[in-house]
């Protein structure tokens, strides 16, 4: 299980212990934990809501390819005091910041695909060259 599971990730795990539990029950329990401040609901832009057992203030980075989420503990800037109040009169209590990119695994896949692509391109050129002769 990832460190930022979705409700269905948790459901799969809980179901091993409690085979008759429903996804709805898992959702309700998660809602209660979020309200009690024990679990944080992540406002990431992925398909499914993710949950975080680490309620200390931190931001997240999401992989654009596989959707995995990792912690960013040292955001170089605190947007709470970014002067947003001055532009619209809101009293700022927090923000949701999400970085996006490629996780280490997907960077690996990407570079493999790039090299396959360049080999293919080379072969095509060679074949074309032979064809003209
Ligand atoms: Zn990834
Ligand atoms: Zn986190």
Low-confidence stretches: none
Tell me the helix content.
Answer: 40-55%
End-to-end separation in angstroms reads 57 Å
- Rg measurement, Å: 22 Å
- When the domains are counted, the total is 2
The ligands found in this model are: zinc ion
Overall geometry comes to flat
User: Mean pLDDT, as a whole number?
Assistant: 83
- Supply the helix-strand structural class: alpha+beta
Strand order of the largest sheet: 4-3-5
In terms of DSSP E residues, the strand content is 5-15%
Largest sheet descriptor = 3 strands, mixed
Summary of the model, kept short:
This protein is α+β, with helices and mostly antiparallel strands and 133 residues long.
Could you characterize the architecture of this molecule?
- The chain has 133 residues and is of the alpha+beta class.
- The protein has 2 domains: 7-101, no CATH class; 103-133.
- Helix content is 44%, strand content 14%.
- It has helices at 7-17, 23-35, 84-88, 104-132; strands at residues 40-42, 50-52, 59-63, 69-72, 98-101.
- The chain has a 3-stranded mixed β-sheet, with no helix packed on it.
- β3 (59-63) and β4 (69-72) form a beta hairpin.
- α1 (7-17) crosses α2.
């Amino acid at each position: 299980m990832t460190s930022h599971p979705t409700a269905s990730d948790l459901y799969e795990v809980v179901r091993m212990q409690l085979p008759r539990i429903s996804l709805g029950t898992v959702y309700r329990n998660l809602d209660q934990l979020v309200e009690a401040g024990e679990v944080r609901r992540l406002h990431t832009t992925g398909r499914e809501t993710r949950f975080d057992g680490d309620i200390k203030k931190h931001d997240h980075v999401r992989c654009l390819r596989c959707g995995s989420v990792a912690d960013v503990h040292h955001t170089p800037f605190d947007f709470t005091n970014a002067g947003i109040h001055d532009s619209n009169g809101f009293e700022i209590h927090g923000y949701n910041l999400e970085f996006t990119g490629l996780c280490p695994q997907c960077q690996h896949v990407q570079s493999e695909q790039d090299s396959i692509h360049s080999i293919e391109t080379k072969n095509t050129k060679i074949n074309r060259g032979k064809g003209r002769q």
